[in-house]
Amino acid sequence: MNINGLTVAEILNQVAIDIEDQKDYLCFLDGEVGDGDHGVSMTIGMRAVRRSLADLPTSYLPSDVFDSAAEAYAVEVGATIGPLYEAAFAAAGDAARDKKTLDHTSDWLNIYQAMFTAIQELGGAELGDKTILDSFHPAIESMRVSVAASSDLADALTLAGQVAMQSARDTKDMVPLKGRASRLGERAVGHQDAGATSIAIILQSIAREVAKLQLQINYHFTL
Amino acid sequence: MNINGLTVAEILNQVAIDIEDQKDYLCFLDGEVGDGDHGVSMTIGMRAVRRSLADLPTSYLPSDVFDSAAEAYAVEVGATIGPLYEAAFAAAGDAARDKKTLDHTSDWLNIYQAMFTAIQELGGAELGDKTILDSFHPAIESMRVSVAASSDLADALTLAGQVAMQSARDTKDMVPLKGRASRLGERAVGHQDAGATSIAIILQSIAREVAKLQLQINYHFTL
Amino acid sequence: MKKLINDPFDMVEEMVDGFISANDDIVKRVGRRSIARLESPIPNKVAIVVGGGSGHLPAFAGYVGSGMADAAAFGNVFASPPAKPIIEAALACDSGAGVVFIYGNYAGDCLNFDRAQDTCREMGHDVESVVMNDDVASAPSSDALRRRGIGGMLWVYQIAGAKAETLASLGEVVEIAHRANENTRTIGVGLSSCIVPANGKATFALADDEIEVGLGIHGEPGMKRQKVAPVDEIIEEMFAQLMADLDYRNQRVALSINGLGGTPAEELFVVYRKVKALCDAHGITIAHKAVGEFVTALEMAGASISITRLDLEMEILLNAPVNTCMFKKLQRESSSA
Amino acid sequence: MKKLINDPFDMVEEMVDGFISANDDIVKRVGRRSIARLESPIPNKVAIVVGGGSGHLPAFAGYVGSGMADAAAFGNVFASPPAKPIIEAALACDSGAGVVFIYGNYAGDCLNFDRAQDTCREMGHDVESVVMNDDVASAPSSDALRRRGIGGMLWVYQIAGAKAETLASLGEVVEIAHRANENTRTIGVGLSSCIVPANGKATFALADDEIEVGLGIHGEPGMKRQKVAPVDEIIEEMFAQLMADLDYRNQRVALSINGLGGTPAEELFVVYRKVKALCDAHGITIAHKAVGEFVTALEMAGASISITRLDLEMEILLNAPVNTCMFKKLQRESSSA
Ligand SMILES: Nc1ncnc2c1ncn2[C@@H]1O[C@H](COP(=O)(O)OP(=O)(O)O)[C@@H](O)[C@H]1O
Ligand SMILES: Nc1ncnc2c1ncn2[C@@H]1O[C@H](COP(=O)(O)OP(=O)(O)O)[C@@H](O)[C@H]1O
Ligand SMILES: [Mg+2]
Ligand SMILES: [Mg+2]
Ligand SMILES: [Mg+2]
Ligand SMILES: [Mg+2]
Fold it and tell me: B159, B182, C302, D192: which one has the fewest Cβ atoms less than 10 Å from its Cβ?
């Protein structure tokens, strides 16, 4: 594996495609209890991320990719999600600072953990408030277990993605306390949180890209 | 037969009910080429007519009924149809002036003819322009034939009503030259004229009421 | 049908009550269905009387106030008012200087305003009429007298209204109202139907991907139905229709983008942006402009573009302040630009 | 979805271009998504900066001009602007007298305006924030700080704007903006959904005979869904909610009836008529009133009622003239009535 700056950029590029593919679904989820724009806001953000990748210098580090994603969210998105993802990507940049590659499970645990902490600090939500945190947190816990078990990176990320998506589904049962849906209280029960779902899509997308890379490498070796 | 003021009022009352029953259909016809309000305007007018009947003195002539119908249309309706029906009812009042009863086929021929002429003079339309005139005119011609043939009143009015409705249907093939639909030219072909239809409903409604009266009288005689 | 109304047959009555109450600093009631400026009649001033069917607010009653109309008559929804409220409106505001009726060219309005004019004249009032016919889609230019009046009234009312405020004569006000009308063209596009309340159903149906260019402000069919397209393409076509009818090249104009009721203001500004670009490309200078809802068709989605070719007098008159029930404009300072 | 737009993802950009071009006699561009009054910065005047998601015109940019806001930042549709355009707006209008951010209480707006405030302060600007929370339907009064800001902004902006025009101090402007907000309550009712352009589908669905009382200006669910009823009944219920929250009895108030976008003005006057009757019945004097579209939700059908309880200072401030892009008011002459 050689997850260098270029590879991280390719991964984020695919993340952007996957998010845009799910735009309508994310809007639908947000529309049930919120204002129906989450898929649009994420698509605007991810399109800006893709444009910013094109402007990167010829050679760059993984942290440069995260930094420019943060800047893209900062300038183009707004809404709740804009500052939260700006902070998350900026934290990812800091967590990856100076690293040439992100080949280890622990690298990604650190990055995810930094993103999570940034979102939690800026947004001030608690676990159980029916937000991004509620699918992101279990995913990080599964990464922590994978690190302890010395799991292979692709497996660890795949498991984290699966846990995130299952946890996103589980937000249906939660009573939201933060964000626009919060004032609905009990009325929001039964609706899956949009932000928890989009971060799960992102984590799954990253996992799939890394798994593909691994496959290519394995294929090389067995040739 | 004894079609006195009271009877004419009862007839108009039923006309009003029949028009309101067909409100949505008349709006639908008007909506295809016009502004979709003909059923509403006619209902507003006919409701006003009914209210005005309640204000008539204890004893009144047929012409009083027509006069107050004219006033009702004048004050409440507006639109194209308001002045046209105002003029028509006023002309009917003039045609019936001083008569105690309207028992003869020729009485109704005169009334219809007066109404027609008033509409034609005020509106300035030609036959074939896809207006009220196009169902009213053939109905009057059939009345003229009935008078020559000394037909009985109920039969004459019934035939006139049938001719009017058939002629209203035939407006489908006409290219309108007057009124809102006129600028559509060929595009209006295939659509039945709303105003031609409402006058046909009115003529049929009058015929049915007079026929009912006749039936009651016949029933008396055979007793 | 879901509307914020009680019995649909009471809607106009209740609307008129609410309108007068909400605007009692500008207008007074002068009949069951007619209003006039509080100060009417204004000595020596020619009075402008407007009116038409309900369902078009701000047209027509919304334009009563200083700088535009002196009085208005309300009709039923999409139906011209009868002669009676028009006469009441005229009598309430005629100071003796005379009255101009300015209304749109529809069969019903022509019939009723004509009868009101006859009656007023019989009563000794000097009444003239100016019939607006700015809708290019409603008849070919060879038959312009059959065209309807639509969104252009915003400019015609303001120009005539400002002239009347200068205490110009009846003839002068009539002349400039005609001139404003003759130099004004409008074209509209409809995206959805409206619902006449007492009917309760959509007046017409457009498929999910269809629009109608040239649609009237009551839902009367327009020039053609077509597939929905990027707005820039639609506007280019509409603009070309206007240009083909009146040569605006290198002229100074007043331009309005009018929402028909159901179209968000955001879209109207997207439309303005394109029309402005087309004006620039044709050397047209936009001396006055307005973007908003000026003549609506209940909740219909769509927009219309009105352009008035200005001469110096009209352009200066449009600098005057306006304070009507639903349209207000502060005095334009003579700009140094 | 049929809208007068090009690529939905370009809509805000094109709308902003059109908006600035159509209002170039009042505002100038001070950033890609920010505008300020032409005269900004105005010496010694506290500047008012507003902003929020697009899709709500006239809110927020429509209120930039004399007597209301000095600058505004545009967000994407229903999305708060990022900090950057807010900062640009603030920097463009701060004369040194300080800046007040006045915005609605939404998570996104709070996040972004807070960050902009921090940055501006770091740059040495005196910036305070007033967060509007007038929507009684969005949280119980025991939890009023979580309430959203909606239609009441019309009165809060005007009161704060008029105060700022008197060259009051930053503290004074902030104080009266807070006071106006604290005395304002709003409740809305939604009849249909809106369509976020880049989503392309209705945000939510209401059955043909359903309305939602307390619906937010983005389609956020309200207090309850119910069957459609005569408007007088709906208004009685809404009015009761307002009265239960703030005692308006025998007070002087500013009252606005706001259309959410898809509701014809005719219906808004029917609503006004009923609210006026309820005010009369409760001894409430309507000192200032406005009926129209002030804070919309794209093409959503529905309306909201905002009432501000006035003290003498607020009432007098509301007499001041306003000349903003989309809301204009001539100086009210001190009435003899
Ligand atoms: N304080 C918060 N912390 C973390 N996530 C949050 C917070 N507030 C809201 N969210 C997430 O944001 C999502 C909504 O985002 P979006 O619709 O883009 O923004 P907006 O609410 O401004 O329209 C919610 O589904 C929720 O997951
Ligand atoms: N000049 C005319 N003479 C006779 N009938 C006419 C004339 N103009 C229009 N009509 C009739 O009026 C009908 C439309 O009436 P209505 O919809 O009530 O009025 P409006 O056109 O003002 O909406 C048409 O269908 C037509 O039959
Ligand atoms: Mg959202
Ligand atoms: Mg009609
Ligand atoms: Mg009509
Ligand atoms: Mg949003």
Answer: B159
Looking at all shown ligands, the one closest to residue D55's CA atom is 6
Q: Tell how far the Cα of B147 is from the centroid of ligand 1, in angstroms.
A: 82
Q: Is A179 helix (H, G, I), strand (E, B) or coil?
A: coil
Which residue range is the domain that position B79 belongs to?
Answer: 5-222
User: Among D318, D308, D240, D230, which Cα is nearest to D271's?
Assistant: D230
Q: Verify whether residue D56 is a known catalytic residue.
A: yes
- Structural fold of domain C11-182: Rossmann fold (3.40.50)
Question: Given an 8 Å threshold on Cβ–Cβ distance, is D2 in contact with C267?
Answer: no
Would you say C63 and C295 are in contact if contact means Cβ atoms under 8 Å apart?
A: no
**Residue type (1 letter), C148:** R
Q: Evaluate if residue D93 carries a pLDDT over 60.
A: yes
- Give catalytic residues of C, as residue numbers: 56, 218
C63 touches D at CB < 8 Å: no
pLDDT at residue D25 greater than cutoff 80: yes
Domain spans, chain D: 11-182, 184-329
Interchain contact, D108 vs A184, CB within 8 Å: no
> What's the angle, vertex CA D270, arms to CA D266 and CA D276, rounded to 5?
135
Q: Is D79 in the pocket of ligand 1 (CB under 6 A)?
A: yes
Residue range C50-59, pLDDT digits in tens: 999 999 999 9
Please state the pTM of the whole predicted model: 0.95
Which of C112, C115, C147, C199 has the highest number of chain B CBs within 10 A, making it the mutation to test binding with B?
C199
Ligand 1 and D284: CB distance under 6 A: no
- List the pLDDT tens digit at each of the 223 positions of chain A: 799 999 999 999 999 999 999 999 999 999 888 889 999 999 999 999 999 999 998 899 999 999 999 999 999 999 999 999 999 999 999 999 999 999 999 999 999 999 999 999 999 999 999 999 999 999 999 999 999 999 999 999 999 999 999 999 999 988 777 655 666 667 778 899 999 999 999 999 999 999 998 888 766 665 5
Q: Which residue type does C297 have?
A: A
Nearest CB neighbour to C115, from listed B76, B83, B178: B83
CA–CA distance, B77 with C84 (Å, rounded to integer):
11
Cβ distance of B36 and C221 shorter than 8 Å = no
Topology annotation, domain C184-329? Hypothetical Protein Tm841; Chain: A;domain 3 (3.30.1180)
> Are the beta carbons of A198 and A42 closer than 8 angstroms?
yes
How far, in Å, from the CA of D316 to the mean position of ligand 6? 36
Residue B103's SS3 state is coil
pLDDT digits (tens, 9 = 90+) for C283-296: 999 999 999 999 99
Who's near D282: CB < 8 A, 6+ residues apart? D243, D248, D249, D250
Structural domain count of chain A? 1
